[in-house]
Task: inverse folding
């Protein structure tokens, strides 16, 4: 398998699955877009194994361990025909992406497997916002730290800002997906924030079952959304620190996710009666603006 064929296979995965991410890939230079597709395909494979409910948890753990072992062997130089590994290995070399970041990415993906409730009726939770922040770091901030290596940057402040931008994205996902996650026995709303607003795991499950959204529940969700909003300020500061030919890609991604958070805030936290999203038409409009920005930034750094 050639490297070009491996990247093409990863691009097909990204085009089919990436949704918000793929919009940003399209305004990058080709060689950077290829690398982003490789990273996404690696993430997608890990997520698919972790979320495959056709397998019991123990089997998923075993499949994940086998897959991670194969990836590590390929990194050590073992021959592989897996297009994701071939493309990712090339992207790592080209953009100096350390193994540690990808190891942390896998760690974040496997957290849900490790912490899956062992008995029916139990729920996976996070005790404090600090614990939730660590989860967000592993599943989203690490992705941001990989991305800025592909985008290009020289100011070390970019790393902290990319970490916080990742947290903003993941908190947005958590707010959007409260209902779906709770139905899978996962409540990412931290227990300390629930208690602060007089709520509990049982309160969240009642909302999922159709209970009226109380003043306390709205206040809690609004509080978490406000925290996410503060982290989006880091995205604004990050944008001018990355290479000019990649700024449009970051802008597209931030714009889509930030608008999603805005929709959630406009709904006063009601993420239970319907799934909140940014329409395809609006995403295409954002992509068009990003493409114009990318053209204007060509040749600048």
Result:
């Amino acid at each position: 398998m050639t490297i070009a064929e491996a990247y093409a296979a990863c691009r097909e995965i990204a085009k089919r699955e990436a949704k918000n991410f793929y919009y940003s890939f399209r305004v990058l230079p080709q060689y950077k877009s290829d690398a982003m597709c490789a990273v996404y395909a690696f993430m997608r494979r890990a997520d698919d194994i972790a979320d495959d409910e056709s397998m019991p948890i123990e089997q998923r753990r075993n499949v994940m361990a086998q897959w991670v072992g194969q990836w590590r062997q390929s990194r050590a130089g073992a021959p592989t025909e897996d297009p994701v590994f071939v493309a990712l290995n090339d992207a790592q070399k080209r953009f100096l992406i350390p193994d540690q970041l990808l190891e942390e990415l896998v760690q974040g993906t496997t957290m849900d497997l490790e912490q899956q409730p062992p008995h029916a009726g139990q729920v996976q939770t996070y005790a404090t916002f600090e614990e939730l922040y660590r989860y967000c770091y592993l599943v989203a901030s690490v992705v941001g730290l990989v991305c800025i290596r592909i985008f290009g940057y020289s100011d070390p402040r970019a790393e902290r800002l990319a970490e916080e931008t990742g947290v903003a994205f993941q908190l947005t996902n958590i707010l959007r997906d409260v209902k779906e996650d709770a139905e899978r026995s996962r409540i990412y709303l931290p227990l300390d924030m629930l208690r602060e607003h007089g709520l509990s795991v049982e309160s969240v499950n009642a909302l999922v079952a159709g209970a009226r959204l109380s003043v306390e529940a709205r206040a809690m969700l609004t509080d978490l959304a406000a925290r996410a909003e503060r982290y989006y300020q880091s995205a604004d500061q990050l944008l001018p620190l990355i290479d000019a030919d990649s700024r449009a890609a970051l802008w597209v991604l931030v714009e889509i996710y930030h608008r999603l958070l805005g929709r959630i805030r406009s709904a006063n936290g009601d993420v239970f009666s319907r799934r909140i999203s940014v329409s395809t038409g609006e995403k295409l409009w954002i992509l068009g603006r990003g493409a114009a920005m990318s053209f204007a930034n060509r040749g600048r750094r």
User: Anything to note?
Assistant: Residues 1-116 form one domain. The chain has a mean pLDDT of 92. The radius of gyration is 20 Å. The CA atoms of residues 205 and 295 lie 48 Å apart.
